[in-house]
Amino acid sequence: MQKPPTLCVSKSYIHRHLLSSSSQGLLPFLTLALYSSSTKAPAILYDSKHSTTVSHRQTSPPPVKSSDALNPPASTLPPPLTLPNRPPNLSGTQRFTFYYQTGKAYLSFYKSGVKSIYQNYKILRQLRPRIPRGKSFEQALRDGALSRAEYHLIKRTRRDAFRIPLFGLVLAICGEFTPLVVVFMGLNGAVPRTCHIPRQIDGAREKGEARRRKSFRHGTVAGDEMGKLDDVQKLPKPILTHVGRSLGLYSSLWDKVGVTPSMLLLWRIRKAVDRIEVDDFAIQRDGGVKQLSEEELKLAAEERGLDVVGKPIGEIRLVLVKWTEARKWAPIIGLLSRRPSAWSRER
Fold first, then answer.
1. Cross-strand bridge partners of residue 44
2. Which of 55, 70, 152, 202 could form a disulfide with 287 if both were Cys (CB 3.0 to 4.6 A apart)?
């Protein structure tokens, strides 16, 4: 029986693609290729609805289908994590077996997450010819060359790819203990999004929302001032700081030392506003808030500084619909500076 192919890179392939100017950005996958070449894991084929593990010849994945132009493929998100149930009254041998199986489950999860990035990168390469030379991804999205699903696949894959070398090193050293190292050492920024475990995601959301609640206690702008906050360069320092805290654009360590990195914060807020504005346009064009999947809905709400922890999906969707309506008269900074219950137009 023919053995399934593994993700390995030959010297000739590296010479032709890794060192060529047309394939800049493939370097982060060298770590992945070398790591995967020592395993017997089956290839992962791309599917328009979800990524599946199959054990036959690896083929080139097709581009994202236009039938789902709104939601990126599930391969851009963490795969399911299935952990063994802990039986009561564990003996010595049973305890060892339980922790061993748990470690294997985490290791399998991380491998699947890393391989998803590789598959997404292959799709990204197929999308590049559709982007006109000299145009940014955002311009290509607005011109219709990219759908929202394709745009987010590109952005997430590029972000995750550059995290692979460091994360691959941590995974190679720590193996099954990687979750403990990531959670207790706070290495969220070094972990690709496809490799975030549920506890990691929930912890980051809870921490971010607690910081946002604390920031809102210091007061927000009045309703008649919301429409005036359309120039990021002229934001008052309290609003600048609040938006930075609400969106998690700077470390809480700055607050502890009583210093606000104004120049850095101004640049990051400008980038965040541009990112939200582009996504608002893409959501409306490619299907609307009501067609967003549950996880994409949460991610969109988080990006706009909206709480999602403990809230029903229906409530999150209604708030995001309200955001879309409010954007017709209020700038993004104005909405970020007030709670959804206070999004009312003063006459």
1. 53
2. 70
DSSP 3-state of 200 = helix
Burial status of residue 190 (CB atoms within 10 A of its CB: 0-12, 13-18, 19 or more): middle
Three-state secondary structure call for residue 53:
strand
At 61, is the secondary structure helix, strand, or coil? coil
Contact 204, 308 (CB under 8 A): no
Q: Give the C-alpha distances (Å, rounded to integers) separating 326 from 226, 336, 343.
A: 11, 11, 7
Strands 52-53 and 44-45: antiparallel
Whether the full predicted model's pTM is greater than 0.85, yes or no, is no
Distance CA 156, CA 76 (A): 7
3-class state of residue 262 by DSSP: helix
> Token digits for 201?
């995601």
pLDDT digit string (tens) for 56-104? 333 333 444 434 899 999 999 999 999 998 878 777 788 888 888 998 9
C-alpha closest to that of 208 among 300, 306, 275, 294: 306
**What are the tens digits of pLDDT across the range 102-122?**
989 999 999 999 999 999 999
pLDDT bucket at 49, cuts 50 / 70 / 90: very low
* Closest listed residue to residue 162, CA positions, set 22, 31, 38: 31
- Residue 251, SS3? coil
- The SS3 of residue 43 is coil
User: Quick count: other Cβ atoms within 10 Å of Cβ 274?
Assistant: 13
